Amino acid sequence: MSKAQIKNPFNNMCYVLRVLSQYRCQHIILDHRQKVDCNSNTCSKSASHVPREHSCLTECTQRMGNTQDLIRPNPNFSCNACHLAGF
Ligand SMILES: [Zn+2]
Ligand SMILES: [Zn+2]
Ligand SMILES: [Zn+2]
After folding, report:
1. Relative to the alpha carbon of 80, which ligand is closest?
2. What are the helix (H) ranges across 21-79?
3. Is the pLDDT of residue 10 over 80?
4. How many angstroms separate the CA atoms of 40 and 32, rounded?
5. CA–CA separation, 67 vs 33, rounded Å?
6. Mean pLDDT across the stretch 61-85?
7. What residues flank ion ligand 1 with Cβ within 5 A?
8. Residue 49 C-alpha to ligand 2 middle, in angstroms?
9. What is the pTM assigned to this prediction?
């Protein structure tokens, strides 16, 4: 999955995306987390944040947006625990 496919629902705010897999057994397991960059130069969390001198605390976003969950169905497999238990 490429990062470019993820739409950032926040303006000027980075956030953490939790990617979860829903397995055949219906268990939902955290796959990984990734930071989604808002690419704003007025966000202190962004890689595009301006390197110039500025009053960051007043001009820039200082916090991350709410963590978002993305659940990806994975109907061909059971989760690890169920797999080990023989399901
Ligand atoms: Zn940002
Ligand atoms: Zn700043
Ligand atoms: Zn399971």
Report:
1. 3
2. 56-59
3. no
4. 24
5. 10
6. 95
7. 14, 38, 43, 45-46
8. 6
9. 0.76
Measure 46 CA to ligand 3 centroid, in angstroms.
36
Q: How is residue 76 written in tokens?
A: 């061909």
pLDDT tens, position by position, 11-68: 779 999 999 999 999 999 999 999 999 999 999 999 999 989 999 999 999 999 999 9
CA distance 14 to 45: 6
- For residues 13 and 50, what is the distance between their CA atoms, to the nearest angstrom? 14
**Residue 58 — φ and ψ, nearest 5°?**
-95, -30
Cβ atoms of residues 37 and 46 within 8 Å: yes
Tokens of 26: 């219906």
- Cα–chain-centroid distance for residue 65? 10
Residue 12's pLDDT is 78
In the DSSP assignment, the letter for residue 43 is B
